[in-house]
Amino acid sequence: MRVVAFDLETYLLAPGQAAPRVVCMSYCDEDGDSGLHLRDDALPVAHALLDNEDIILVGHNLPFDMACLCRADGSLLPKVFAAYDAGRVRCTLVRDKLLLLSPGQLADAYDTGSKRGVRFTLEAVVRRRFGIDLKE
Q1: Which of 37, 50, 58, 135 could form a disulfide with 79 if both were Cys (CB 3.0 to 4.6 A apart)?
Q2: Distance between CA atoms of 103 and 122, rounded to whole angstroms?
Q3: pLDDT at 107 over 90
Q4: What is the rounded CA–CA span in Å between residue 94 and residue 60?
């Protein structure tokens, strides 16, 4: 299996718009094969990545990226679901939430009702899991 890091940049979120328009897509695999494509050129690349059953897509907040891709090209929807069904989509944000959910670290404080204030930016996840500060 070939692991490919995958990310989209989109227009800003707006009220009533859960999947904004795609601006560009970037990807990179473990061998250094990489690309940066504007929206129109990104869609054929997304098709190719999702069609290849030997590729595992990894990224942060991939459900959002996949929704944006499907908004841009509805024919990607069955390919996205097939990749999820085959376990070929791995999201670091979702994984981190599941790892915190299991021991109850996502729940509010029961005695006070206060929120725990856990952040899920890529920076926060890397700091929590690896002790690395990305700001530097």
Answers
A1: 50
A2: 21
A3: no
A4: 8
Torsion angle (degrees, nearest 10) of CA 19, 38, 42, 97: -40
Phi, psi (rounded to 5 degrees) for 29: -105, 180
Q: What is the spatial distance between Cα 123 and Cα 96, in angstroms, rounded to a whole number?
A: 12
CA distance 6 to 122: 13
Q: Say how far apart CA 110 and CA 41 lie, in whole Å.
A: 50
Residue located via tokens 């990226």: 65
Q: How far is CA 131 from the centre of its chain?
A: 21
Pairing of the two strands 2-10 and 22-29: antiparallel
Q: Which residue has the tokens 């990807």?
A: 27
Residues 6 or more apart whose CB falls under 8 angstroms from that of 77 comprise: 70
pLDDT tens-digit series, residues 50-64: 999 999 999 999 999
pTM over 0.70: yes
